[in-house]
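[step 3/7] fold_predict: job queued, chain A
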Amino acid sequence: MIPALRPTLFAAALIALAGGASAQQAAPPPAAAPAESAAAPDGKALFRSKTCIACHGRDGAKAIQNYPELAGQDAKYMLAQINAIADGSRVSGLDARGYPRTQGMKDVMHLVSAAERATIADYLAALPAPKPRPLDPAPDAERLAAGKDAYAKGGCTTCHGADGNKPLATYPKIGGMKRDYVVLQMAEIRDGIRKGGKVATMVPFAKKLDDAKIALIADYLSQIERAPQ
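[step 4/7] structure written:
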């Protein structure tokens, strides 16, 4: 009887081996390693790809026309202004074509998420501020001194600090800004054209300034070289 069982046992062994091999072949591949988390947003790349560079210039330091240079500006202030322009609460005057100067930026803000806006603001704030742009004609020392005096007596130091570079939290640094931009913003705040943000706190001070005094202060502020952060 025992010899007769050998073929049967041998066949069973073959079947078992075949089944094991099939199981090995059918086994799913090992799980893939988890993908690495996405890289943190690149502020420089966002600044360029979201068209900010078109008006504010390379690295926020070579703005065109009457747009501000943003390199070295306070991050919280910039983020507040970006959001105010996006939601329409910051209103500006018209450009030469008759469009609000903020309209071009407002039109693309739906392409920039809240996180991306904050990343762009942090990127710009960490950059060195541009050197003052020379004026033609260059203001002499007497005019700059008069501008500094007008700046102090006009109450500007209350919010923007000495030389426009030590502002209260969420207020802008205005020392070293482009002269024409400073003139434009002061005049529009005085005349009730620019609205939104903390503009209302500046109106009582700005209303005391005529065009000549605004130009004097702007000359002074525009020639201040901002210290490295």
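[step 5/7] annotate
Residues 1-26, 32-37 have pLDDT under 50 and may be disordered.
Residues 2-26 form the longest helix (25 residues).
exit 0
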